[in-house]
């Protein structure tokens, strides 16, 4: 039931996008009434998306009927931006696609091109000047956070690289093990000889 | 009053003549029709919307399908189905009560849903359609109001196409004692009060609470569906069994 509730909220957000960007409806029209089933493997959940011409419908379902099905882990799905990656992912069994792929692509393209004129919509509530100011602020914050993000990710990358130098490579480990084994053998031989010497006395 | 069990049935907790139940149920829904949607949201805290979403998610409905939303009332399910079946499909909103149909028709018109919806007054016990007509039949919170439920289920079976399915969304039996007690208190004490305050009609909402208790539980309804000919019959408890969604297929 909780799932159901969250899905209902997401559906509501999608439909708000549909209202705020009038061109979205046009971009979706070519795939109207087509059922896209999204199977998120690690959640063990399936979601059905349909654009009916008026509204977007989103359901959490166990039905196995679709016009196009896409199945992957959530991380793989989120990273699915570059079509060149598709074949590779499918070969690695990380992604499964069935049915008419134009449908998945249609949804993806339509939302990628989402362009909502926020100041325009906000001004209905706030008045033009305030909306413009608020929007500037949002944008600044966005840029700022992008900067921070970038810094963070470079720091992370360097960290990882440094870390890489510190951690041992499997080959190194193998080598180390071999050395230890040799050493053990030597010690054993030595022990034998000492024992022999002791007995010979 | 006639106490002959052949001729009597339940109207909430009262025993009434079978011939009378339909008109008594009709009175209830005539009197609540205009307030029905508001009351639904209030009484279930809006959760009825989620129960209905689950029904649609389990329907397998798609472009071109023929759907009967039986006892459809003010048409919540019809509104969604109408969009999902598109202009090549068809949805019939069927109800025994003209006031409910009228409210439904107005609501759907205002939502801009026209073209593929028919509004037909009908009794679930004798559905006015040829055999094998529909891909899907839903009856949401309707079956418990029907006098002869077995007859109604057989009638639904008859007009389903082979491969078609029936979905029954109805109040049922809560799975846990505590929930059951709380629910009893809510429906017998608070619900009629709310009915009194908002719809100015406590009696109708008392009937609602009583009719829910008299309705068959999960397993009984499943057996009734099997009896009527449905196959692969299953049910899913929603909100701890306060409501159950039964599903059966005709092959
Ligand atoms: C509680 S309402 C449900 C309306 C709608 N399905 C919903 O879920 O909101 C029950 C409906 O069943 C209708 N009804 C009662 N007995 C019926 C019968 N024998 N045949 C058809 N409809 C009936 C009533 O008129 C009423 O509109």
UniProtKB/TrEMBL annotation, chain A:
Q: Which Gene Ontology BP terms does the record give?
A: ubiquinone biosynthetic process
Q: Tell me where the transmembrane regions lie.
A: none
- The SCP2 domain extends over 14-111
Supply the Pfam families for this chain.
Answer: SCP2
Please provide, in alphabetical order, the Gene Ontology terms of the cellular component aspect for this entry: cytoplasm
Which coarse location class applies to the principal site listed for this UniProt protein?
A: cytoplasm
Q: What is this protein called?
A: Ubiquinone biosynthesis accessory factor UbiJ
What is the species listed in this Swiss-Prot or TrEMBL entry?
A: Pseudoalteromonas arctica
Name of the coding gene: ubiJ
TrEMBL record, chain B:
Keyword match Flavoprotein: no
Q: Which residues cross the membrane?
A: none
Pathway participation? Quinol/quinone metabolism; menaquinone biosynthesis; menaquinol from 1,4-dihydroxy-2-naphthoate: step 2/2; Cofactor biosynthesis; ubiquinone biosynthesis
Keyword Transferase present in the record's keywords: the answer is yes
Q: What class of enzyme is it?
A: transferase
What does the UniProt keyword field contain? Menaquinone biosynthesis, Methyltransferase, S-adenosyl-L-methionine, Transferase, Ubiquinone biosynthesis
- What are the recorded GO MF terms, alphabetically? 2-methoxy-6-polyprenyl-1,4-benzoquinol methyltransferase activity; demethylmenaquinone methyltransferase activity
The Gene Ontology biological process annotation of the record reads: aerobic respiration; menaquinone biosynthetic process; methylation
Quote the EC number: 2.1.1.163, 2.1.1.201
Which catalytic reaction applies to this protein? Answer: a 2-methoxy-6-(all-trans-polyprenyl)benzene-1,4-diol + S-adenosyl-L-methionine = a 5-methoxy-2-methyl-3-(all-trans-polyprenyl)benzene-1,4-diol + S-adenosyl-L-homocysteine + H(+); a 2-demethylmenaquinol + S-adenosyl-L-methionine = a menaquinol + S-adenosyl-L-homocysteine + H(+)
Q: Where does S-adenosyl-L-methionine bind?
A: 74, 95, 123-124
Looking up SUPFAM superfamilies in the UniProt record yields: S-adenosyl-L-methionine-dependent methyltransferases
Reading the lineage from the top rank, the first entry is Bacteria
Query: What family classification does the UniProt entry report for this protein?
Result: Belongs to the class I-like SAM-binding methyltransferase superfamily. MenG/UbiE family.
What's the protein here called? Answer: Ubiquinone/menaquinone biosynthesis C-methyltransferase UbiE
């Amino acid at each position: 039931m909780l799932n159901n509730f969250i899905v209902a909220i997401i559906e509501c957000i999608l439909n708000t996008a549909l209202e705020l960007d009038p061109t979205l409806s046009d971009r979706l029209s070519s795939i109207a009434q087509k059922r896209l089933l999204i199977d998120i493997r690690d959640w063990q959940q399936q979601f059905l998306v349909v654009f009916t011409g008026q509204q977007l419908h989103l359901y959490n379902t166990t039905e196995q009927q679709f016009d196009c099905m896409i199945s992957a882990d959530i991380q793989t799905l989120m990273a699915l931006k570059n079509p060149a990656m598709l074949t590779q992912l499918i070969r690695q069994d990380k992604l499964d696609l069935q049915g008419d792929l134009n449908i998945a692509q249609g949804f993806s393209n339509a939302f990628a091109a989402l362009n909502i004129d926020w100041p325009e919509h906000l001004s209905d509530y706030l008045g033009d000047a305030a909306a413009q100011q608020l929007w500037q602020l949002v944008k600044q914050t966005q840029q700022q956070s992008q900067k921070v993000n970038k810094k963070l990710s470079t720091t992370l990358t360097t960290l990882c690289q440094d870390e890489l130098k510190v951690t041992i490579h499997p080959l190194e480990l193998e080598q180390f093990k071999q050395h230890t084994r040799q050493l053990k053998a030597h010690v054993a031989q030595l022990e034998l000889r000492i024992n022999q010497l002791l007995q010979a006395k | 009053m006639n106490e002959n069990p052949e001729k009597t049935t339940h109207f909430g907790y009262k025993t009434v003549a079978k011939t009378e139940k339909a008109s008594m149920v009709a009175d209830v829904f005539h009197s609540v029709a205009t307030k029905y949607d508001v009351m639904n949201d209030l009484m279930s805290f809006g959760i009825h919307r989620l129960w209905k979403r689950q029904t649609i998610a389990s329907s397998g409905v798609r472009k071109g399908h023929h759907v009967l939303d039986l006892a459809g009332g003010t048409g919540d399910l019809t509104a969604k189905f109408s969009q999902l079946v598109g202009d090549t499909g068809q949805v019939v909103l069927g109800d025994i009560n003209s006031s409910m149909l009228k409210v439904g028709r107005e609501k759907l018109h205002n939502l801009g849903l026209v073209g593929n919806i028919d509004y037909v007054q009908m009794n679930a016990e004798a559905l006015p359609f040829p055999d094998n007509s529909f891909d899907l039949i839903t009856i949401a919170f309707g079956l418990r109001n029907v006098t002869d439920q077995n007859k109604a289920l057989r009638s639904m079976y008859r007009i389903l196409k082979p491969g078609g399915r029936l979905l029954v969304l109805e109040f049922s039996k809560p799975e846990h004692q505590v929930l059951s007690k709380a629910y009893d208190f809510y429906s017998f004490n608070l619900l009629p009060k709310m009915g009194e305050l908002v719809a100015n009609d406590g009696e109708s909402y008392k009937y609602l609470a009583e009719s829910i208790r008299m309705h068959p539980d999960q397993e009984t309804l499943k057996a009734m569906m099997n009896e009527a000919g449905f196959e692969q019959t299953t049910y899913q408890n929603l909100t701890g069994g306060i409501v159950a969604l039964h599903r059966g297929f005709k092959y």
